[in-house]
Amino acid sequence: MTETQDELKNIQRKPGLQIWTISVRSHCCFLQLGKKNKNCYIILNVSNSATQSTDIHYWIGNASSQDEQGAAAVYVTQLDKCLGGSPVQYREVQGCESAKFKSYFKNGLIYKKGGVGSGFTHVETNVYNIQRLLHVKGTKHVTAREVEVSWSSFNLGDIFLLDLGKAVIQWNGPQSNRQEKLKAVLLAQDIRDRERGGRAQIGVIEGGQEEASPELMKIMTSVLGQRTGHLKEPIPDDKPDQNQTSNVKLYQYEHFNLGQLLVQEVATSPLTQDLLSSTDCYILDQGGSSVMVWKGKAASDEERHSALSRAVGFIKAKNYPSNTKVEVMSEGGESAMFKHLFKSWKEKGQIQGLGKTHSVGKIAKVDQVKFDVMELHAQPKLAAQERMVDDASGHVQVWRIENLELKEVNPSTYGQFYGGDCYLVLYTYNRANKPQYILYMWQGRHATQDEVTASAYQAVNLDNKYNGAPVQVRVVMGKEPRHFLAIFKGRLIIFEGGTGRAGVVNPDPGARLFQVRGTHEMNTKATEVPTRAASLNTNDVFLLKTHQNVFLWYGKGCSGDEREMGKAVADLLSEQDKQIVMEGQEPAAFWVALGGKAPYASDKRLEKEVALHEPRLFECSNQTGRFLMTEVADFTQDDLDEDDVMLLDTWEEIFLWIGNSANQYETQESYSCAVDYLKTHPAGRDPGTPITTVKQGYEPPTFTGWFNAWDAHKWSGGLSYEEMKSKLGDISQITVSSKYIFKVIIWSSLFQEYLTDAEFENLFGCTRNNFQRLPKWRQNDLKKKAGLF
Prior knowledge:
By secondary structure, the chain is an alpha+beta fold. The strands form 4 sheets. A 10-stranded mixed beta sheet has the order 2-1-3-4-5-17-16-15-13-14. A 10-stranded mixed beta sheet has the order 19-18-21-22-23-34-33-32-30-31. Strands 7-6-9-8-10-11-12 form a 7-stranded mixed beta sheet, with helices on both faces. A hairpin with a 3-residue loop joins strand 10 (about 160-165) and strand 11 (about 165-170). It comes from Cyprinus carpio.
């Protein structure tokens, strides 16, 4: 143990993976680097990012002993201490690994018999004395499990790799999908290149079309025997943990004398960051799907060091499955998943981007910063964070839904939106000398359901007109995104009700009150609010319009820029002379128009920070027969699957990325799932969060900026499953040396029994019985003449 502790102290925090196994010798446990054939592993991953975030995983094989499991937990705690307590710790159980863990092994994990995962062990190369059958599952993160080498192991829905050392034969179940087939081919290639030094052949058989691959079927039959009866039906995929259960509870635990532990419930979702105290440790229970432990910086050493064991004990006490996911983290080193479960999260010393946001009618006040579009081109990530594709100088077209059809809006009224209407706004700009499109769908909260439905239908028609190029953005009234504000150049006015249709007289409300927010034309809008004193806010500018007067009210907390924008918007709303009213100096007529004095938001200025949350990517697919959302950890552009719809959650906005091969059901279902995702989010997300639809090949910088090193030409260079399969070649067309490999396989797979007596005698020039009586050297000589040696 002392030797291991010394080794732990020498571990360096270097980017990449480091892997150890637990070795048990005479009831003593040792940590060994890079060994194989063990059942518990410790994996240290240090990211290549500037922050070098660090994660420690300990992996428990199904056949591991209690001694190995206990030792792994102890070593993880010690390793965490040696690295300063900042890493996030994960407990991984074979077959139920987290998406983050699987993301380290892009080509997949292979479970050897006995529970050993060869996907992350040292592999001996150029070893050909192998005969195994791998059951392959997964489309995003692939796992392969060794099963009995028999037809009884097969089913109609999955993919199986028959690994014979010098050849790997892939059998695709008739009900398997294209993405699964592609992933299995990549895994077969990885086995060939990593384990066989590139000296192995790969063949593919399409289940249900075996007659098209007679040579490969001969090999399979020689190994597995003749297939009798029907294959089993597909095994349903386990429904992935979507981490979206709203049943989230926070517990505090602390130690007392005599080793007693007290666990008490603190709160249920939605959770807020101020519930966490630096002097304590907490358990966050996500409805039994995962358990997370948060260690305060000032908590006792005993509480911090026992965090992992407390989580396991909590799982047992709750009667949760033994494979329940566990994460342990220290204050300041929280995982993205943990922070996503809180309604707001602020990092120490958090710095805002180019601007800050606020909400209508709330006391929260922010300082606005002039937007510099040049920074977007230099920093794609900044473009994504600010949700600005350009400087809003492109071309704007606006239509209103009238009688369920599109009616072009007079450009002189651009920027005026009525709560009783639905509008489509098409924005056109150029990037790399190519036109790009954004189609905003603005839906008034008082519009009829028929009009809302018609706006969606007409959006599809417009999208088709431009060959699917527009990025579609659903805009909820009052939740207009920053770019939407910018394209109307300070002329955006939101009327609570009514309609902008020509010839329609809206009801006369008598007096109307508008709240004006913004410091320049790129971020200003006026929103109609209830005409009463309680709507006022000391930090803003308000316009009160009556039949007799127009008052421009300046709160004590508003800036000079905000007052100037207030004047500009007031001129759009009314040509009458405006009476400037300073807060605290209001005339009687002002209060009369508001129905009398009343308390309003007049506390000291508060700043509302934008919650800092890392983006999350989900795969939305029904390729398994059921619609599922599966999270992709540490995502890159490579994770965008052309056969599926992907959901990117940036907290301030939801993107739905539509792959070129995604089916209609996935596309339709993904939108409703995005809405449900917001409604059921344990952090109590705003259901009005913008949902933007992006099609493959038409990604705006507000989307691509969330991906490191985005390659705009990637889609033209990738290989499909069909192309990958064709590159493997046909068994009947392979070279002489390749045929030799397959002949050797047939010979080593009871070739003598497979041939008829006549075929055997024709090949070797003697009967089967006479061949068996020959000395070994003579048998080998005959094999050479037959081309088998």
